Backbone:
């Protein structure tokens, strides 16, 4: 094959991923509420990009269940569907248990310190009533074991289904975030002591403690 005479164009992968993350986070933090219509032209103007990466991001968000589209009509933020959340929760729980299984008994002080710092930020956010910051800190906390394991397949699964669960977690943190803080502290203690089975069981129980019923709602940011 002859070598092309011109260099390839700029790789737009990072741009597409950034647009996807911005829209995903805006849905999770309730910048865009369930039922709100998402128009690609308005979103492109808001983000300062062309409509192409916005359309691609909306397709990815549809695959995650965060938006629903009607061909030729409209795209809107999906309602929080209890069954979809429960299904995603079960998958997310399994991924985090796998990550803990790889980390338990091998956790180093640097990793534990990052978890402690994230949990302190979680507590501060709860005290301030900043649920969006609490969700972010909780994500950072649970990301430490995932990053420690370094399993790209787990990361991909969590990227798809994690936001569905995160959106529902806002109500839990608003109602009783202290319980989550205490579970975090218990998990750190179990990892520090090398209690792998205890850490796995607590992680499983933590994610499955998220109950979603037909009256579930989200709190504005």
Residues:
């Amino acid at each position: 094959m002859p070598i092309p005479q011109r260099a390839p164009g700029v790789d737009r992968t990072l741009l597409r991923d950034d647009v996807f993350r911005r829209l995903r986070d805006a849905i999770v933090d309730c910048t865009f509420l369930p039922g709100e219509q998402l128009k690609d032209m308005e979103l492109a103007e808001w983000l300062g990009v062309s409509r192409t990466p916005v359309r691609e991001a909306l397709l990815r968000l549809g695959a995650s269940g965060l938006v629903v589209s009607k061909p030729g009509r409209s795209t809107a933020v999906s309602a929080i569907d209890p069954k979809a959340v429960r299904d995603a929760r079960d998958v997310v729980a399994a991924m985090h248990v796998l990550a803990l299984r790889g980390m338990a008994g091998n956790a180093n002080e640097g990793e534990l310190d990052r978890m402690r710092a994230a949990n302190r930020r979680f507590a501060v956010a709860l005290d301030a009533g900043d649920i969006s910051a609490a969700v972010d800190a909780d994500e950072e906390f649970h990301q430490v074991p995932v990053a420690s394991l370094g399993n790209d397949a787990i990361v991909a699964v969590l990227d798809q289904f994690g936001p569905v669960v995160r959106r529902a977690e806002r109500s839990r943190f608003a109602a009783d975030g202290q319980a989550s803080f205490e579970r975090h502290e218990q998990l750190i203690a179990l990892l520090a002591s090398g209690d792998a089975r205890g850490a796995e069981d607590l992680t499983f129980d933590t994610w499955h403690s998220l109950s979603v019923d037909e009256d579930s709602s989200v709190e504005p940011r």
Remarks:
- The two ends are 54 Å apart (CA to CA).
- Residues 1-11, 214-221 have pLDDT under 50 and may be disordered.
